[in-house]
Description:
mainly beta, seven-stranded antiparallel beta sheet, 0% helix, 41% strand
Amino acid sequence: VWINNFSSHDDGYSQTKYPFGFTFPFYGSTHDSFRIAVNGFMQFTTSSGSLSNGCLPASIIAGPAVFLFWNDLHLDRGGIPSGTDVVGYKNFGDYVVLEFDSIGNYSASCVGSLKFEAILYADGRIKMQYHQLILGAGAACDSTMTIGIQSNGVAGSPAIHYVCNTTGIQAIEGLAIWFYPSATGSISGTVLDDSNNPVPNAS
């Protein structure tokens, strides 16, 4: 499904949310739909198109979000001048693929093209893949970006930035990055000593 209802081709976001087709667990909450920003990220509760990427958690995006390649991007400048049929998604039952196909840097002087995608699984796993990363030459065509996930934008809240501008391992063509949800649960029972007797006040 191609997504062509962005509020703007520059710093826009999808004007509708799109269904997962399943309940997606993320940082202790669940979500059934998502919204996409032109600038390389998806969000679950907010409507942001922010161009100013930074380290996570990022207060400029107040809610939970997945940052595939957060940078100042433009739909018209990756090789498809109309800016249509650049971003799309497909539901495969137990996972959803979100693809940015031939998106470019915001600056018209940057002759380049980016192709990357995220795969979100019903069990909470996230895989990001990078096929083509040509940003062009020149000061405006910098490769600083943010790649990661956040629970919300509040300082100190749970977040992981794999890349924040020049820190971290930069995205490269052919690279895949996985994010796995942590295992949670509870254990109950009786603690026994060496004689197989219950230990007082221990459980």
